[in-house]
């Protein structure tokens, strides 16, 4: 099928198995540098074959119970940690962090210190970036992972069974040296810089609480350089005409010490817990904190492997 992109460029992608050459079509798609947003804007009724998950994968997932938001006892038990009155309640909060890290590997965080306006502005800034003219975004589209600012569709596009329905802007703010602000996109530069200042403080607080929950000095993990690197990442999930056939983010774990997730308007984050996918609905103003692979590799928490995924929506 012919896909007409916003800039008038046309690319050819198949939507069935006839004459399907996956690697060729992945390259055609990636070379266009228009991302999933470019495909979505063409208003196709079907998604290109490169995004369709294998039939056996779809069949296997149907056997897993996806717990419904709100109505589930399991949902009600997902950990929520409130930092209100941290110093007065520090031992209580440290115990809650340890329980959440060892049982779920993630928790929602309230009264974390990032103003709602900063979170809202960050979301608007990323949206503004992803929804601007494709020709402007192309200057950031790359698979050179040494670059501090990079836009692409799926970092592993050419090695997975199916592409995911999302575009990602990744900004390495501390690597470990601070980024030159002029490298950031005009559309969201101020918002990223403001959000970064706040999230560094949240990260430092979390590292202290995690250290204390292990019976260590509160600076232990920071002294191990666990907070030395920071990336601010903005995923964009356009509406999908066939959400049952693809995912925004497939089953994965995060290659980080911790991930601080500020949830946008797209619901659907799912955590794999007790052999089922549990749909998580964030509380208003909450951050979602995920224990990443690097803390698990240190084997300092007795927690299970932590997997997440994000479905797509029409």
SSE order and pairing:
Elements: E1 2-4, E2 10-12, H1 22-32, H2 35-41, H3 55-62, E3 66-67, H4 73-76, E4 80-82, H5 90-103, E5 106-110, H6 116-130, H7 134-137, E6 149-152, E7 167-174, H8 189-213, H9 220-223, E8 230-236, E9 247-252, E10 258-262, E11 270-273, E12 276-279, E13 287-291, H10 293-297, E14 308-311
Parallel strand pairs: 3-12, 4-5
Antiparallel strand pairs: 1-2, 5-13, 6-7, 7-8, 9-14, 10-13, 11-12, 11-14
Helix pairs in contact: 5-8, 6-8
Write a structural description:
This protein is an alpha+beta fold and 314 residues long. It contains ten helices and 14 strands. The strands form four sheets. A five-stranded mixed beta sheet has the order 3-12-11-14-9, with no helix packed on it. The protein has a four-stranded mixed beta sheet with strand order 4-5-13-10. Helix 5 crosses helix 8 (189-213). It is globular, with a radius of gyration of 20 Å.
Structure summary:
GO terms for molecular function: dioxygenase activity; metal ion binding. The protein is of the alpha+beta class.
Low-confidence stretches: 67-74
C-alpha end-to-end distance: 21 Å
| General shape | globular
Number of distinct helices: 10
Q: Note the main sheet.
A: 5 strands, mixed
Number of strands: 14
**Roughly how much helix do the residues carry, as a percent range?**
25-40%
Rg calculated over all Cα atoms: 20 Å
Binned strand content: 15-25%
Which strand order does the major sheet show? Answer: 3-12-11-14-9
Mean pLDDT: 87
Query: What is the element string, with H for helices and E for strands?
Result: EEHHHEHEHEHHEEHHEEEEEEHE
- Supply the helix-strand structural class: alpha+beta
């Amino acid at each position: 099928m012919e896909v007409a992109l916003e800039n008038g460029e046309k690319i050819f992608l198949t939507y069935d198995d006839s004459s399907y050459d996956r690697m060729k079509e992945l390259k055609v798609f990636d070379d266009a540098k228009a991302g999933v947003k470019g495909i979505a804007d063409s208003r196709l009724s079907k998604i290109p074959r490169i995004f369709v998950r294998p039939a056996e994968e779809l069949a296997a997932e149907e056997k897993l119970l996806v717990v419904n938001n709100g109505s589930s006892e399991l949902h009600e038990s997902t950990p929520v940690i409130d930092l209100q009155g941290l110093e007065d309640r520090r031992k209580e909060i440290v115990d809650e962090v340890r329980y959440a890290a060892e049982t779920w590997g993630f928790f929602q965080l309230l009264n974390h210190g990032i103003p709602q306006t900063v979170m809202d502005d960050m979301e608007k800034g990323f949206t503004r970036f992803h929804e601007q003219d494709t020709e402007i975004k192309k200057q950031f589209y790359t698979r050179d992972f040494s670059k501090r600012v990079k836009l692409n569709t799926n970092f592993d596009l050419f090695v997975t069974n199916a592409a995911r329905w999302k575009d990602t802007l990744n900004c390495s703010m501390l690597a470990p040296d601070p980024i030159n602000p002029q490298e950031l996109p005009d559309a969201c530069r101020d918002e990223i810089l403001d959000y970064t200042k706040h999230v560094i403080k949240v990260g430092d607080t979390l590292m202290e609480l995690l250290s204390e929950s292990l019976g260590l000095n509160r600076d232990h993990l920071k002294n191990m350089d666990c907070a030395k690197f920071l990336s601010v990442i903005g995923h964009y999930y356009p509406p999908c005409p066939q959400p049952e056939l693809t995912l925004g983010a497939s089953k994965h774990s995060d290659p980080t010490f911790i991930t601080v997730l500020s949830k946008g308007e797209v619901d659907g984050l799912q955590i794999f817990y007790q052999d089922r996918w549990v749909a998580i609905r964030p509380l208003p103003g909450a951050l979602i904190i995920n224990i990443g692979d690097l803390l698990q590799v240190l084997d300092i928490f007795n927690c299970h492997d932590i997997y997440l995924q994000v479905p797509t929506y029409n």
